[in-house]
Design a protein that fits this description.
The protein has about 475 residues and is an alpha/beta fold. About 60% of the residues lie in helices and about 10% in strands. The chain contains 16 helices and ten strands. Helix 1 crosses helix 12, helix 4 crosses helix 6 and helix 15 packs antiparallel against helix 16. It starts with 16 loop residues before the first helix and ends with a helix.
């Protein structure tokens, strides 16, 4: 049975265009005011540079927990999407790997070799939170600020060494960040299966690894290569069954024991594993360190991508239809991008590369709807020569209304499901797509098509 909706409709969309313009104007103005008040968009470290850490907890966290983490780390902390057990810890550190490497090389050139890690604090913008980690984990005699050139390992001496040294520094930052976060979160969520008085360093943290090879490396000294491989497969399988970013072992020693027995480990080996391991109440799922220069390059690339897409669309529609149609489509696309980013600004959502990808996707989606309406307008202009342009545009929109609602509706259902159940990792991406589908459909009817009316009236008046 064919689903027919909006058949033989005669809605006066063009007659209501001023109301639509008012609604769009209010939405765009609200976004601009929010942008000004907040001092710009809430840019992610993809564009600003810094450190971004994603943590999953065995149990949900409260507002009080977030406050304790913020005060303990002095970093931005917020929940990820709708998940109550996942948080993102972000530190927009201006002096990340590359900048710090450049400062170290510059100081070494002007002052000479470091004699103490305390001298790092003389570097402008050096994050003090990392000093203690450097002091405790590295020895100046071991050339912590060294680069490898061929077979030679030597101190970083010039600007050509900055890129190589920045990689080393970023690894240090990642390790330091993991260490400081683990310390604070361990106090918030004590380990499971760790007897009082026993140091975590004396046992294996089964929630620490992120891949099968990490598990093998961790378990092999305790269980042997064969048992370690079999158990690593079981753990990796548990991760996959629970989702890419989910950890079934988190805080559940009974699950560890079950997986170990299912992997074919005998009772003595299972007991050895349980006695020699523990589960943390959280898992650091990822640590990303991005330098400010890389962030700047990514930001420029994102802007160029959007401009290139718009220019390409302008040329294509000009060739396919007329220049006025191309302008109408571009105005509608600008409208969609402004409204979507404005809503993200109002919600305080982070703008990162995933959101830029969503914006580019919605540009293509919105244009698809607009092209369908334009195509019908072009056909009706040939068939309905005695009718006015307003009547032709209204007729074209009504004729394509059922198709527009059905395609947009089915897409909207999918994006809404992703928003509600897709998990925290893609929540904001799906939210941007959802907003874009609604706004893009609306703009095809109320912005792009009415623009043609205004354009032809203006051209006719000018002529």
């Amino acid at each position: 049975m064919d689903l027919q909706i909006f058949t033989d409709t005669h809605y006066d969309f063009i007659g209501r265009r001023r109301i639509a313009f008012l609604v769009s104007g209010v939405l765009i103005l609200a976004g601009i005011v929010s942008f000004i008040i907040q001092g710009g968009f809430n840019l992610g470290i993809d564009f600003t540079g810094g450190v971004r850490i994603q943590v999953k907890f065995a149990q949900g966290i409260t507002t009080g927990d977030l406050t304790r983490i913020r005060s303990g780390l002095d970093m931005d902390v917020y929940t990820q999407g709708t998940a109550a057990d996942e948080v993102v810890i972000r530190n927009k550190v201006e002096n990340t790997g590359e900048a710090m490497a450049a400062a170290i090389v510059s100081r070494r050139e002007t002052v000479g070799p470091f004699t103490s890690f305390d001298e790092l604090t003389q570097i402008e913008g050096f994050p003090a939170v990392y000093l203690e980690f450097f002091r405790e984990n590295f020895d100046l005699d071991e050339n912590p600020f060294a680069v490898t050139v061929g077979a030679e390992v030597r101190p970083a001496l010039n600007t050509a060494d900055v890129r190589a040294l920045s990689t080393t520094i970023e690894r240090m930052i990642e390790r330091a960040t993991r260490a400081s976060i683990s310390q604070v979160l361990s106090e918030l969520r004590p380990p499971v299966g760790l007897p009082a008085g026993v140091s975590p360093t004396a046992r294996l943290n089964l929630n620490a690894p992120n891949s099968r090879s990490d598990y093998v490396k961790l378990l092999e000294p305790l269980l042997g290569a064969q048992n370690a491989g079999r158990l690593a497969d079981a753990f990796a399988g548990a991760r996959n069954l629970g989702g890419i970013q989910t950890m079934r072992l988190l805080g559940d020693t009974a699950e560890v024991e079950r997986l170990a027995r299912d992997a074919g480990l005998d009772s003595e080996v299972v007991k050895r594993l349980i006695d020699s391991s523990y589960l943390s109440g959280f898992e650091i799922q990822s640590v990303n360190v991005i330098g400010p220069k890389v962030g700047e390059e990514l930001g420029s690339a994102a802007i160029y991508s959007i401009i290139a897409a718009l220019v390409g669309l302008l040329l294509y529609i000009s060739l396919r239809f007329e220049f006025a149609f191309a302008l109408g489509a571009i105005v509608a696309l600008f409208h969609d991008v402004l409204v979507t980013l404005g809503i993200f600004s109002l919600l305080g959502k982070e703008i990162n590369l995933a959101i830029i990808a969503a914006v580019l996707t919605l540009v293509g989606y919105s244009l698809n709807d607009t092209i369908v309406v334009f195509d019908r307008i072009r056909e009706d202009r040939k068939l309905l020569r005695r009718k006015s342009l307003v009547e032709i545009v209204n007729s074209a929109i009504n004729e394509t209304l059922s198709r527009t609602v059905l395609t947009s509706g089915t897409t909207l259902i999918v994006t809404l499901v992703l928003v509600l159940f897709g998990g925290s990792v893609i929540h904001d991406f799906a939210l941007a797509l959802t907003i874009g589908v609604v706004v893009g459909t609306y703009s095809s009817v109320f912005i792009a098509a009415p623009f043609l009316i205004g354009w032809y009236r203006m051209v006719k008046k000018a002529a």
